[in-house]
Amino acid sequence: MNTDALRIDLAAAFRMAAHFDLNEGICNHFSVAIPGADERYLLNPYGVHWSEMQPEHLLLVDGHGTVLEGKGEVEATARNIHIAGHRANPKHLCILHTHMPFATSLTMIEQGRLEMAHQTAARFYGRTAYEEEFGGFALDENEGARIAGDQTNRGDADIVFLANHGVMVGGPSVAVAFDDLYFLERACRQQVYAMSTGRPLKIIPEAECRHTASQWMQVLEFQANEHFEALKRVVA
Length: 236
Known about the structure:
This protein is an alpha+beta fold. The chain has one domain (about 5-235): Class II aldolase/adducin N-terminal domain (L-fuculose-1-phosphate Aldolase). Helices cover about 45% and strands about 15% of the residues. It contains 7 helices and 8 strands; from the N terminus they run αββββαβααβαββαα. It has helices at about 5-20, 75-90, 100-105, 120, 140-150, 175-195, 205-235; strands at about 30-35, 40-45, 60, 65-70, 95-100, 130, 160, 165-170. Strands 4-3-2-1-5-8-7-6 form an 8-stranded mixed beta sheet, with helices on both faces. Helix 2 (about 75-90) runs parallel beside helix 5 and helix 6 (about 175-195) crosses helix 7 (about 205-235). The longest helix has 29 residues, at about 205-235. The chain is globular.
C-alpha cells in the first residue's frame, strides 16, 4: 500500500474513532510506519480534532520526530510512544493509542485484566500484555521506550494495557488495528457492565477459549477489511 492510501486509511480511522467516542479531546494519537529502508511515520498533528481529520492533515516525520511533510507539530508523547513502539515491533505497521473509556477503566483497578468471560474477549486471548506501573506523561524518550518494552518483553502482544493510562493497539494494517481497537472497547464494556452487577464473572474454560481464539484468527483479517470498508461508507 502506498503512502497516499495509508494517509486515507489512517485519517478515516481517526474519524471512525471519534464517531465511536474512542478519542479524548485532541489528545491521543495514531501512527503508521511507511514501508521502506528509511524511518518514516505518519502521525496526527496536535490540535486537529479527530472528527475533522483528513489525509492532508497527517504529518510525515522521521525517526527523530522531525516533520518532513505537513503543517503543525507532533505532540511529544505521540513522538516518544509511537516511534519507540514501531521500532520495538516492526510487525505493527499501525499503532493506535487511546484513553477509550471502558478499556481504560480496567487500567484503573488493582489487577485489572480483560477476563475471558465473553466470546469477544476471546479474540484477544494470548495477544494482550499489561504494563503494571504508571510512568506519567511520556514527555521524554525513556518513557516511550519503557512502554514499547512492554510490547516486546511479553511475547507477541498486540494489545498493551497501560496502568492508570490507556491502551496501545498494534496491527499489520490500519484496518486490522482499528478492528482490534473497536472490539477491544466492546469486550471491555461488556466486562464492566457484567462486573457492575456485583456477581462473579463466568470465565470461559481454557480449552474453549483457545478454540474460540483460533476461530477468531481464521477470519480476523478478512472481517477487519470488510468492517473497515463498511465504516468508510457509513461513518467516515
